[in-house]
């Protein structure tokens, strides 16, 4: 999935988990697990420049970098707005950001072209990469669905996560 649904979901889980634990490792781990669960849902990873991606199979065009920048900016705006509007305490902000980091960690490790080859060679990170790949929805399944499904699932996840953060 895109960064926005991953971060919002992990942030929402962190907010609600904080009522029974303030343990940052547990909060991080819950965010991490949410990443695999969301990747199992049909979705598009490439929105901007999708046609070029389908034609060439090249993931890391300039359009992809633009998408990542916009994606990070969007989620920073939404999360920043919610934190300010709902007056999260400093401790809750810390937990929400740690959860959010957990929620995006698999993609930070495996999808960033500057180091993803390297992380695949480090034992525990290589195991993580295997889990990440296995959890991800299979293209053979997703391609049987109408192509817009990949957008709607992510919009639905974002709406639910924002509602949970309110
Ligand atoms: Zn992922």
Overview of the structural elements:
The structure is a single chain. The chain has 166 residues and is an all-alpha fold. It has one domain (3-165). Helices cover 73% and strands 0% of the residues. The chain contains 9 helices and no strands. The chain has helices at 3-17, 24-39, 50-56, 62-85, 90-110, 116-119, 123-135, 139-142, 149-165. Helix 1 packs parallel to helix 4, helix 1 (3-17) packs antiparallel against helix 5 (90-110) and helix 2 (24-39) packs across helix 5 (90-110). It starts with a helix and ends with a helix. The mean pLDDT is 92. Zinc ion is lined by residues 35, 39, 106-107, 132.
List keywords for this structure.
single chain; mainly alpha
Tally of strands: 0
Order of helices and strands: HHHHHHHHH
> Could you give a short account of the major beta sheet?
none
What ligand molecules are bound, each kind once?
zinc ion
Q: Unreliable runs, pLDDT <50, ≥5 residues?
A: none
Radius of gyration: 16 Å
Taken as a percent bin, the fraction of beta residues is under 5%
Count of DSSP H/I helices: 9
Structural class by helix and strand composition: mainly alpha
What is the 3D form?
A: globular
The first-to-last residue Cα distance is: 22 Å
Instruction: State the helicity in percent bands.
Output: over 70%
Query: What is the number of domains?
Result: 1
Averaged pLDDT = 92
């Amino acid at each position: 999935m895109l960064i926005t649904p991953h971060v919002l979901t992990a942030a929402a889980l962190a907010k609600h988990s904080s009522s029974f634990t303030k343990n940052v490792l547990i909060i991080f781990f819950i965010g991490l697990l949410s990443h695999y669960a969301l990747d199992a849902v049909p979705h598009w990873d490439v929105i901007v420049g999708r046609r070029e991606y389908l034609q060439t199979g090249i993931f890391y065009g300039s359009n992809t970098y633009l998408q990542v920048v916009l994606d990070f900016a969007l989620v920073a705006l939404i999360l920043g707005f919610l934190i300010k509007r709902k007056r999260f305490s400093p401790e809750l902000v810390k937990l929400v950001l740690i959860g959010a980091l957990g929620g995006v960690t698999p993609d930070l490790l495996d999808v960033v072209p500057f180091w993803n080859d390297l992380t695949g060679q480090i034992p525990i990170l290589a195991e993580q990469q295997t889990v990440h790949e296995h959890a991800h929805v299979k293209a053979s399944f997703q391609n049987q669905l109408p192509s817009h499904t990949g957008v709607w699932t992510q919009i639905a996840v974002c709406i639910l996560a924002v509602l949970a953060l309110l």
